[in-house]
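Q: I have four molecules that I believe assemble together. Could you output structure tokens for the complex as a whole instead of separate predictions?
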Amino acid sequence: MSLKFALLALLTGSPMTGYEIGKSFDASVGHVWNAPGSQIYPELRRLANAGLLNVEEVPEGRRKKIYSVTAAGRESLREWMNSPSTPEPTRENHFLKAAYLDWADPEAAQAQLQLWLAAFTQRLHIVEAVRDSLLNGTHPILRERLRTLPTDQHEAATAFKVFAFEGMAEEARQKIAWAERGLELLARLERTPARPADAPATQTARVTT
Amino acid sequence: MSLKFALLALLTGSPMTGYEIGKSFDASVGHVWNAPGSQIYPELRRLANAGLLNVEEVPEGRRKKIYSVTAAGRESLREWMNSPSTPEPTRENHFLKAAYLDWADPEAAQAQLQLWLAAFTQRLHIVEAVRDSLLNGTHPILRERLRTLPTDQHEAATAFKVFAFEGMAEEARQKIAWAERGLELLARLERTPARPADAPATQTARVTT
DNA sequence: AGCTTCATGTAATCCGTTACATGATTCC
DNA sequence: GGAATCATGTAACGGATTACATGAAGCT
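A: Yes, here they are, computed for all four components at once.
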């Protein structure tokens, strides 16, 4: 339901084309909300039809459309922000899989845990980079946004974005630690299980692989 | 895509009816994966048609169907477990909203943060309770599952489930701390901003509400 | 001339949510 | 007899993913 509000929120920063929104999603913002072009363009049009967005067509050569938020759009965003939302029920692939990792071959389990580790590490880097750019005034969208805001609101606008990205960073750190513990668990289990109580203690033989 | 595997995984524990699966979702398992009956029943039928599940109809009075996993179903599950999955792109409502909380009225922002706090706290309790029941052998589904498994695989089957639920617990704890920091931030911002540099320092007047 | 990037979209399909329908059994 | 729980579903809709289509601008 909230692609709508993700778009409205983004466009309050500064007017943009659908293409640029897609780029933003691919870069920083995509870790807050993500969507492919095939979802962005139709949604933008719907929002424009509903009067929440303004379209400025730029027909000089290119056929591009710059969207900006109307007063009604700003009102709609404010309304959403003021109405409480409950967190959605969890539906995270990795927890489901983790709970049944004993079904996987040990190598596959290890590969999966390492893949998670890599993915969450990468996410952490990106999210920390965004947070830093918010703090040191490098973030282009926030920068634009602040230009249109009275100075006494700069702190809040910045602080909440930093707050959100700090939250994502923490989550990433937590999952990194979690994946590492998973690898340890796997190693521990592999050292013990299929031994029928009387196998020799020659663990040093299985060093490779 | 993984309701399919959630169902297969659950049913490897012990055969069940769609209704019982729904109950499990509402109780413990729902924090790993959740779905309403309207999604469960059709999916079960599809899986049965695909030969991954076995249906035992119990026509004695009730019209109920007990589903169990076939060899093909077990194979399909194993295949999924052995093929790596990348974590899905984030699309979490609360981070999106948090990033733009300056758009909300302070009271609404506070209410929202408190709602998150309450929801994550509740989630933490449930998830910890499940983890405990896994550890002390009270968890009914795991119990059933272990009955059909050789003893030397008990440890792994239990450990991975504990691992998953510990991960969820940590995530919940992290989000609780995050929401609390959000409340502090909000309080801090409310103490300072709209003051045009020469307002009196009589903060004690605003104690109520 | 050909590749990359900019820029916008359609179509099919799938997954998920909400609302509603139905009827049997069990408990009070 | 009436309410709660057991048990299974249908229908409509909306949101998301994947694949494909199109064409201009700019660079090499």
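A: One point stands out. Residues 93-193 of chain B form one domain.
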